[in-house]
Amino acid sequence: MTTAPTPLLSAQGLHVTFPGRHGTAPARAVDGVELDIRAGEIVALVGESGCGKTTLARSLLGLVPPASGRVSFGGKPLEYSSRALKAYRRRVQLVLQDPSGSLNPRHTVYDAVAEGLRIHGYAGDERATVAQALSRAGLRPPERFFLRYPHELSGGQRQRVVIAGALVLEPELIVADEPVASLDASVRGEILALLLRLRTELGLSALVVTHDLGLAWNIADRVAVMYLGRIVETGDVEQVLTAPRHPYTQALLSVLPDAPGDPVVLTGEPPDPSRIPTGCRFHARCQILASGEAERAGVAEACRSRELKVLDGGGGAQVACHWARAAV
């Protein structure tokens, strides 16, 4: 029996909490997450705003220490000393949603891309390394962009500069938080194609954080759907997005332009993470419970009162839903 290769990046029993306001209970922003990302793999982390996906991404980057659980990279637990985190961030880089906010308007493109090299005391040929990163990000000839400022670039070009700034340190993994949300449709496709090309050419792994299941379909090998601090469905992207089992995933997919049937309109907002409901954390908004289908399946009481186990991070098809499990 062969053992599975060690994941490149792994979250194990991860919990991230924030202090409550005015003496209220702590907010459980990440509430027990297991997630593995393998070398050369693109994983999409999907969910509504406020579900905890950005906090999870920031914790995986070492920006937010967990209350419990751990993050491992290459099989070794992440250490939180300044020196260890600096070394880690050469290997794992962040690409943010808004390129305008990521770039200092007073810095040229060259300085923006070279910044990481200077922080890490790079001793090689800085000019050649910056040029290579810009070229890999699709800005060619790179020298034409060296002395430009962010306001002189299009939105797509600015995002490519941000990606070049991540690539310049030759990381093994990038965490892209809504990498195309601020771009128009034509440019979105170009940036997604770039990320796929970088995976092919450089063996780069990626965690792509998004609210858009259509984006996940176009770029990811695997998808993890997050709700109220926990992953509620995961598996190969085609399997999850063609035959979603969790009612929350079904609702997210139903509003895509080409989705069959009527959109599922979820009532209310996601609950406050300081007051997570008993039972299934989605039950108060669940269309399956509201329609009586869960009652007919004999699981309605379990939905309201029995908590589901945390899904493991291995990547096989899994769902945290009493009704979906009863239907198997």
TrEMBL record:
Q: Which CDD domains match?
A: ABC_NikE_OppD_transporters
**Where does the record place the ABC transporter domain?**
9-253
Protein name, entry field:
ABC transporter ATP-binding protein
Q: Which Pfam families match?
A: ABC_tran, oligo_HPY
Report the domain of life of the source organism. Answer: Bacteria
Which key words are in the record? ATP-binding, Nucleotide-binding, Transport
Q: Does the keyword Endoplasmic reticulum apply?
A: no
- Family of the protein in this entry: Belongs to the ABC transporter superfamily.
GO MF term (any one): ATP hydrolysis activity
Q: Name one GO biological process term.
A: peptide transport
Which Gene3D superfamilies does its entry note? P-loop containing nucleotide triphosphate hydrolases
